[in-house]
Amino acid sequence: MNKRVMVIDDEESIRFSLEEGLSDFGYKVNTSESLKKSDAIIKDFRPHVILLDMRLKDGNGVEYIENIKTIDEDIKVIIITAYGDIESAIHAMKAGAFEYITKPFDLDEIEFQIERAFDQIQLNQKIQIFEEKNRNEEVSIISKNEGMLELLKNVKNIAKQSNVTILITGETGTGKELMADFIHSNSPEKKVPMVKINCATIPDSLFESELFGHEKNAFTGAEKLKKGLIEIADGGTIFLDEIGEIPLNQQAKLLRFLEERKIKRVGGTKDVDVNVRVLAATNRNLLDMVNKGLFRADLYYRLNVVFINILPLRERKSDISVLAEYFIKHFNIKFNKNFLGFTNKAIEAMNEYSWPGNIRELRNIVERICIIQNDEWIDFVDLPIHSNNNLNEKNTYDFLFELEQNRPLDLPELLMDIEKECIEKSLEICNGNQSKAAEMLNISRFALKRKLDK
């Protein structure tokens, strides 16, 4: 973003010092010595922020704000004056000023207020994008399952209650983020963008700074004040995905925020009030983590005010074919294909499959088929899961059928095949991350490595 700042002041020394100083900060700066000349410059230069003297030789700066807003209502106006008093400050703010600064001023203070103005501009842009998206897209969750439909009905009512913390749980791929979007789209805060934070992707050393922000010079490299993600979400909703991955030493700070709705930036001494709705999600058993000393009990109970658990796909079999058909229509458009649907055998195979990766796995499989295949109908042989269900072939999932037919089994070989398939599937779900795969299989990482070598 090319940040443009304009200075309107009849004192040449002020214009010169601000132009030089702000240019050094990286802003593109233009100046005007009078209100009369300013209209043309504003229209041509299109500033984001205007530093406006309150008293100029050819008019009153506060009264000129209305003229600025007529040209561009998104311009942020910062009034600067040597005649500072509460009454004139209130008058300026009512007229539409973003901030009010008295002379003599410090250049760092000016730069700080300009950055505040740009933060507001960027937030307004996000709101506009979000509202435009909402006009064209309605967040919906597809389901025919009675339990899910009842859950969605209750969630709509819960969403209307502001400031209620909600914990969303469910296995990997069940749609926890989509549920958070659904809650937000049905909430009073839906016109303000939801800030999403994946707690697993933030390094421990940066966690506090990312969430709570930092003051200028709080640490090496902190050249300016930075708002944290929680403060940016003020007035809206924050979604803490993978909440179970928050480092134990950072959990107390998050607990304080949830209890008091106040944050303290790194290096700061003052509390900042923040009014946000909090949604959190995890695929981990937080209560089990509490018992193991990996998650604070007080934080768990503070998060678990309203609990929403999303059923795995294997327990919503009526949704499998519905979702599969939806994905076919979606990828037909995306890849310019003409699939008509699934054969009965394909649907039967999908219904028998356990779907460890849930909806995400189903979506990925349909997408892969739509990319590779060109037939009108998708048959069970086209599904990479068909070997798990085809009873005409010998595999690790039809051994009960083999026994029922009085056929002998090689149990050690069978168990090894099952173990191999479980390891491969866990690594696929965890995108090759051996530590997470080992955790999913409830074995150590070293045990997993030994099995892989074997």
3D structure, described in words:
- The protein has 454 residues and is of the alpha/beta class.
- The chain folds into 3 domains: 4-126, Response regulator (Rossmann fold, 3-Layer(aba) Sandwich); 144-309, 3-Layer(aba) Sandwich (Rossmann fold), CATH 3.40.50; 314-453, Orthogonal Bundle (Helicase, Ruva Protein, domain 3), CATH 1.10.8.60.
- 48% of the residues lie in helices and 14% in strands.
- The chain has helices at 12-24, 35-45, 61-71, 86-94, 107-136, 146-159, 176-185, 207-212, 229-232, 251-260, 286-291, 297-303, 317-335, 344-352, 358-372, 399-404, 411-429, 434-441, 445-453; strands at residues 4-8, 28-32, 49-53, 55-56, 59-60, 76-81, 99-102, 166-169, 194-198, 213-214, 226-227, 237-241, 262-263, 272-273, 277-282, 306-309, 341-342, 377-378.
- The strands form 6 sheets. Strands 2-1-3-6-7 form a 5-stranded parallel β-sheet, sandwiched between helices. A 5-stranded parallel β-sheet has the order 9-12-15-8-16. The chain has a two-stranded antiparallel ribbon with strand order 4-5.
- α10 (251-260) crosses α12.
- The radius of gyration is 29 Å and the shape is elongated.
- Residues 386-397 have low confidence and may be disordered.
Q: How would you summarize what this structure contains?
A:
With 454 residues, the protein is α/β, with parallel strands linked by helices. It is 48% helix and 14% strand.
